[in-house]
Every structure is written in structure tokens, then in C-alpha cells.
Amino acid sequence: MSRRWTLNGQSGFEKCLQYEENIPRTSTLASNEVLVELHAASLNYRELAIANTDGPTAARAGPIRPNIVPGSDGAGVVKQVGAAVSAFRPGDRVITHLAPNLVERSGDEALPAYHDIADGLGQVVDGTLRSEGVFPETALVSAPESLDWSEAATLTCSGLTAWNSLLALAAGATVVATTSSEDKAKRLRDLGAKATVSYRENPEDWG
């Protein structure tokens, strides 16, 4: 039996988030599916935006599949694989990938579009706020052995955002970072950010 959180609307977590337990384990997998026992999940601002379409990010959030399991980032162990799965086997450590469709494309076609994000984990495909779940093979990548579960679960969205900023800096772009405190702002400037904006001091102007 497993446990999960589901989102049954988009009027905020307080109204629409529901906890469920004693969920029967999936008995069969499609050929491209992987059963994962999740050990950690992390939350991003994306989850808040999806859950509350009355907020300022409503235009970007998009609709959800009814009773979706929220969360795009998580880490765990493969328990079972479908017949056509070649990248993973039981016992492998994995982390989730927000936009499974991107993995099946290459070149410029692999650049994420709005619909890739809106059709991803935690919005159309069940996400990571559950103790175990079935994912498409393309929604998973191998987890680094050097990271514990909590660390691995933060890589996909927030980790890749930071990584993209470093690549942009290396390519000569001007990086402006948003943050919540002067201590964090100093650290960001030390890492190469040209300027920083506090979203606590400037809540109306930063985004």
C-alpha cells in the first residue's frame, strides 16, 4: 500500500490538496513504464502556481488533470520495469524529469516549449508527492551516487535553473538573480551575478 497527495482543484493548497493512504500498488506496467519507490521530493514555486490559478502566475500555470499528484522533483529506487524499458533495472537510483517528451526529441526540437512544461509531471502526469508511483521511462534519469535522497530530489527544476545561469554567464550573458536576503544576494554576486533583486523588498517589481 502507498500514500499520496492529490490536487482536486486550483483554488489553493488549503482548499484543494488532499492526503490519501492505503492506495493499492499498481499490479501491471505498460511496456515503457517504471515503478519507483520515492524517498524524497522537493517543492518549487511551480507547484504553488499550479495549485492557485487565482494568483499572479495564473496565465502561466495552465489546467491540471483532475486529482493529479503534484510535484515535479523527486528521487527514489526502481522497483519494477516494463518489458520495453532499457535504461533502468530494479534497484537503480533515479530522479524525476519534469518534461518526459523532451527526451524523445533532439536538436532545436528539444528546446522546451510552454506545452512541454504544462504537460509535465505534477500537472498532467502524476508527480512526486507520493510514496511510490509509476512513471514513463523518459520521466527518469539516473541519480548521482554522491548525493543523498534529499539532495538528489532538488536537482531537476531548481538545480537546472542554477546550472543554466552558470552556462549563461560562461557564454557572456548578463545574469540578474532574484533572492530573498542580502546574505544570499552577496553569495550570488560572488558566483558571478551582475545584479540581484530582492523579491521581499520589491514584491511588486521583481518579476
Overview of this structure, please?
The protein has 207 residues and is of the alpha+beta class. The chain has helices at residues 13-16, 45-51, 58-61, 114-118, 149-152, 155-170, 182-190, and strands spanning 2-7, 17-23, 33-42, 73-81, 93-96, 132-136, 140-142, 176-179, 195-198. The termini are far apart. The chain has a single domain, classed as Medium-chain alcohol dehydrogenases, catalytic domain (Quinone Oxidoreductase, Chain A, domain 1, Alpha-Beta Complex), CATH 3.90.180. The longest helix has 16 residues, at 155-170. Helix 7 (182-190) links the parallel strand 8 (176-179) and strand 9. The strands form three sheets. A five-stranded antiparallel sheet has the order 6-3-4-5-7. A two-stranded antiparallel ribbon has the order 1-2. The protein contains seven helices and nine strands. It is globular, with a radius of gyration of 18 Å.
